[in-house]
Amino acid sequence: MSDVLVVAEHRQGSLREVSFELVTAGRELASESGGHLDVAVIGGDIDSFAEELSLDGVHQIHTVDYGEEFNHDVYTQAVTQLHEAVDPTVLLLPNSVNGLDYAPAVATRLGLPYVSDVVEVEWGDDGLEAVRERFGGKVETVVGVDDDAAVVTVRPGEYSPTDSDGDAPVEPFDAVIETDAIVTAVLGFEAVAGGDVDITEADVLVSVGRGIEEEENLDLIFDLAEALDATVSASRPVVDDGWLEKGRQVGQSGKVVTPDVYLAIGISGAVQHVAGMKGAETIVAINTDPNAPIFDIADYGVVDDLFDVVPELIAQFE
Ligand code: FAD
């Protein structure tokens, strides 16, 4: 029987989607071994976060009422103390900028193995196994953990978020935060260019690649996005050319997205791009090349010139 503790993530007053994905991962892991899943949330609008996190399969919610936004030193202290009190076998944290910031520090303090950027975590014949992708998703490696106890960061977008309600009791946790040990401070929050658009939260993405040929042609893509009430994202060459902001890049060196619908327009489907969008529920590809790899993962494909297809789609949707 192995218990699991998940630490939720929030930013600017909202819980991040990855928190609900970690609940799914944690619930599967805990229930397979007959253990409990507990969820912790630190700082921010603690009461409403706790209510939102009362999800199916959650046994207990621990709240640490300290601070508004993420702070490395506070999280490191609070999560270490929570771990000592709750004593889970597996600690699941988001493989996000914040998670990657404090997970190694917590693992070091607890003297536990640390496995990062995991796409799946499960019980194998010999105990806990964490699956990681290498070489842009071409190869999977399975990391076996001795004695099962570990700190694991899970890549956002790999598990479906849990949205069914539960009735977990909330237990405030009295973490003793040493203020002398808080040597970092969040000075402010500044969105990167294009930060007004969060492609990771969009339900429908209209994604554009090098097939668009010229910057001026992007108007066509934005017109389609407007007709579909969608958000525009891109493959790397479009961003490298400076035609769209880095915040819109999908892929290994961009963002991982899991929209309901992903329209790949003039995108070949290189592994580094696919690594960021393969979790989309429905993938539609428009490409002149019938052998483009994007068609291997597309649910619907149009082998045609985007300059013919996109205006027709805009007319249809309008
Ligand atoms: P191309 O591969 O050039 O494909 C363009 C496609 O458009 C072609 O399939 C073509 O048939 C089609 N086309 C052309 N004209 C038309 C038309 N008129 N109508 C319809 N279709 C048309 N890439 C990412 O996207 N995201 C990443 O995060 C990323 N990270 C990387 C990290 C590393 C370490 C490396 C080495 C590479 C990374 N790449 C990334 C780059 C990746 O390898 C590809 O080069 C890139 O994804 C290709 O982008 P593309 O599909 O837009 O362009």
TrEMBL record:
Superkingdom, taxonomy of origin: Archaea
Electron transfer flavoprotein alpha/beta-subunit N-terminal domain location: 4-191
Keywords, sorted A to Z: FAD, Flavoprotein
Matches recorded under CDD domains: ETF_alpha
GO molecular function: electron transfer activity; flavin adenine dinucleotide binding
InterPro entries for this protein: DHS-like_NAD/FAD-binding_dom, ETF_a/b_N, ETF_a/FixB, ETF_alpha_N, ETF_asu_C, Rossmann-like_a/b/a_fold
Family: Belongs to the ETF alpha-subunit/FixB family.
Protein name, entry field: Electron transfer flavoprotein subunit alpha/FixB family protein
UniProt source species: Haloferax marinisediminis
